[in-house]
């Protein structure tokens, strides 16, 4: 959960998000070193009156400032491609959930359980219980088991939407007439918040996403209760 004045990302709740955080720190350190070097060169060139003939005309330094950026780009590109393929990997999911975007709410269908399907609306401000978050809480959360691969099929009924949960490292466009898929593993129990990340109309800001990750035995109890209510 993000908090005011937060400078970094939310705490990772999935292996993919942990990889993204590590890559962010890796790339940020490279950018910091490059910025420091460039700043030092600018200050040195402006503040000194000395001239070095090897800087004015030198094959060696030209080779260095051509090869070094290429090496830096490779150091950034290789881990980036690795994570990109990891994010697209969907192997042997234990649970499949279909998320459908509407104007302006989400509906969920647990395709492994034929009777479990519900709509998820934002809780109005006047109906919030103590401790609940304004514009983020919903009346029905998407419940998933922890430490189990979960596949999410994402689509929309009317206009473009985007199903995004930052703590899980998940963001997938919901396109009418098209079925996109993504996957995640919740590495710890918790409640993780997201919002529609595609401009979808007047109430775009009022269709939050709440994923509640619980241990497997609690998930079984929840699914049994949902089937009984259906």
From TrEMBL:
The chain crosses the membrane at residues 27-51, 63-85. It is a multi-pass membrane protein. Residues 92-225 form the Cytochrome oxidase subunit II copper A binding domain. Coiled coil: none annotated. It is found in: Mitochondrion inner membrane. Keywords: Copper, Electron transport, Magnesium, Membrane, Metal-binding, Mitochondrion, Mitochondrion inner membrane, Respiratory chain, Translocase, Transmembrane, Transmembrane helix, Transport. GO terms for cellular component: mitochondrial inner membrane. It catalyses: 4 Fe(II)-[cytochrome c] + O2 + 8 H(+)(in) = 4 Fe(III)-[cytochrome c] + 2 H2O + 4 H(+)(out). GO terms for biological process: ATP synthesis coupled electron transport. Its main location: mitochondrion. The keyword RNA-binding does not apply. The keyword Transmembrane helix applies. Its cofactor is Cu cation. Gene3D superfamilies: 1.10.287.90, Cupredoxins - blue copper proteins (2.60.40.420). GO terms for molecular function: copper ion binding; cytochrome-c oxidase activity; oxidoreductase activity. Belongs to the cytochrome c oxidase subunit 2 family. This is Cytochrome c oxidase subunit 2. It comes from Scartelaos gigas.
């Amino acid at each position: 959960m993000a908090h005011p004045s937060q400078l970094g990302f939310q705490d990772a709740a999935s292996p993919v998000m942990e990889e993204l955080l590590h890559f962010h720190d890796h790339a940020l350190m490279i950018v910091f070193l490059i910025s420091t070097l460039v700043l030092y060169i600018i200050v040195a060139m402006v503040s000194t009156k000395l001239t070095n003939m090897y800087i004015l005309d030198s094959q060696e330094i030209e080779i260095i400032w051509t090869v070094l950026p290429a090496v830096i780009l490779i150091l950034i590109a290789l881990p980036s491609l690795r994570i990109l393929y990891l994010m697209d990997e969907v192997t042997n999911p234990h649970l499949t959930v279909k998320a459908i975007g509407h104007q302006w709410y989400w509906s969920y269908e647990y395709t492994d359980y034929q009777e479990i399907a519900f709509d998820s609306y934002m809780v109005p401000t006047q109906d919030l219980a103590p401790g609940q978050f304004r514009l983020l809480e919903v009346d029905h959360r998407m419940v998933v088991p922890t430490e189990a691969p979960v596949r999410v099929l994402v689509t929309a009924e009317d206009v473009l939407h985007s199903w995004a949960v930052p703590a899980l490292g998940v963001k997938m466009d919901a396109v009418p007439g098209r079925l996109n898929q993504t996957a995640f593993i919740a590495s710890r129990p918790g409640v993780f918040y997201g919002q529609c990340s595609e401009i979808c109309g007047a109430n775009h800001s009022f269709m939050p996403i709440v994923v509640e990750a619980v241990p497997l035995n609690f998930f079984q109890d929840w699914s049994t209760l949902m089937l009984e209510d259906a």
